[in-house]
Design a protein that fits this description.
Glutaredoxin; globular; binds FE2/S2 (inorganic) cluster; alpha+beta; about 25% helix
Length: about 120
């Protein structure tokens, strides 16, 4: 049994990064074409190098249905949704939100922007 599995809930913060991919001609686009693989990799590198495991987990997920605002990222348990995330934004999300518990306001997806 892993250390995370012995805890309940297993993570203090759980980050999901959309890794959905569609055909190139699909009008909705997708997060992979907007840089999701690089965003996911940067989250994973920081979680590892800052020794945030097992309290924090970052993982890929399927479409979060906020495709027009991708790369889409959501952090639980706060249910904070981030929009248009680039690899350049990841360090700030990790430092501010994941480590210090302060969501990054400038990147938050607000209800009127979802679509
Ligand atoms: S393709 Fe990423 S939210 Fe839909």
């Amino acid at each position: 049994m892993t250390e995370a599995a012995r805890r309940y809930p297993p993570y203090d913060r759980h980050v999901f990064i959309c890794m959905n991919e569609r055909p190139a001609d699909n009008p909705r686009g997708d997060c992979v074409r907007k840089g999701a693989p690089q965003v996911l990799e940067r989250f994973k590198v920081l979680v590892e190098t800052l020794k945030l495991k097992p309290a924090i987990r970052a993982q890929k997920c399927g479409c979060l249905d906020t495709c027009e605002s991708g790369v889409s990222v959501v952090v639980y348990p706060e249910a904070v949704w981030y929009r248009n995330v680039t690899v350049a934004d990841v360090d700030e999300i990790v430092d501010s939100h994941l480590v210090r518990g302060v969501p990054v306001e400038r990147l938050k997806l607000h209800k009127a922007q979802a679509g």
